[in-house]
Amino acid sequence: MAYEILKNHIGGDRISSSSTEMREVHDPATGEVIAQVPMSTPEKVGRAMAAAREASPEWRETLPDVELNTFGAILRFAMEWERRAIAFYEENARNHWLASFLELAQGARRRLRRLEQARQEGIAEMILEPITGLDSASYRLEQPKEADSDALLGYARNLEEMAAHFYQDAAARMPIREVARLFQNLAQENLKRGENLSRCF
């Protein structure tokens, strides 16, 4: 039986592969073979990696819109926020900002560890309590296209302000007291980090 041969998806385009080595694609529900996919050549893998690197700065800095209606979803969003803060500060730590931005990145790493610990400790409760009134789109923050000093500093301040806003909102709705307290503490830290940025620069 002849099956559809899938193409590589590179940079938004569907591209045929010159490879003759094929793998079967199975329907996960039935196990039936539904298509074939060619194994990518080194040249196609290189093109795909280059396209991903080129797209990376834009999509990496934008948190996806997700429903923040469970303990687990809120913690995942918070952890992803801290990961993106780490990436921003480390990538933009240069010249006279080096020490300050690296310190902020280290602080975000410590915050991420605290969130991971809260997630592990709250596993039993995370399925039980629905949460309403939080929308991830309210906390959207796009990194500036220009990498000049004023734009990066403005983004860093906005990053800290928006994080404080998110943690305050989440703390007010969090049914687990210890996690609500953690979020309140994180919000206070963000406010202080923002004030320090304003004083330093």
Characteristic key phrases:
5 strands, 56% helix, 5 helices, two-stranded antiparallel sheet, 201 residues
Structure characterization notes:
This protein is mainly alpha-helical. It has two domains: 4-55, no CATH class; 61-200, Ferritin, core subunit, four-helix bundle (Ferritin, Up-down Bundle), CATH 1.20.1260.10. 56% of the residues lie in helices and 9% in strands. The protein contains five helices and five strands; from the N terminus they run E-E-E-E-E-H-H-H-H-H. The strands form two sheets. Strands 1-5-4 form a three-stranded mixed β-sheet, with no helix packed on it. A two-stranded antiparallel ribbon has the order 2-3. A hairpin with a 6-residue loop joins strand 4 (22-26) and strand 5. Helix 3 (98-121) packs antiparallel against helix 5 (177-200) and helix 4 (149-173) packs antiparallel against helix 5 (177-200). The longest helix has 25 residues, at 149-173. The N and C termini lie far apart (68 Å).
Topology at a glance:
Blueprint lengths: L3 E2 L2 E3 L2 E3 L6 E5 L6 E6 L3 H19 L10 H21 L6 H24 L27 H25 L3 H24 L1
Parallel strand pairs: 1-5
Antiparallel strand pairs: 2-3, 4-5
Helix pairs in contact: 2-3, 2-4, 3-5, 4-5
The side-by-side strand order for the widest beta sheet comes to 1-5-4
| Annotated CATH topology of the largest domain | Ferritin
Helix content: 55-70%
Kindly provide the name of the CATH class of the largest domain.
Mainly Alpha
Order of SSEs: EEEEEHHHHH
Radius of gyration using CA atoms only? 22 Å
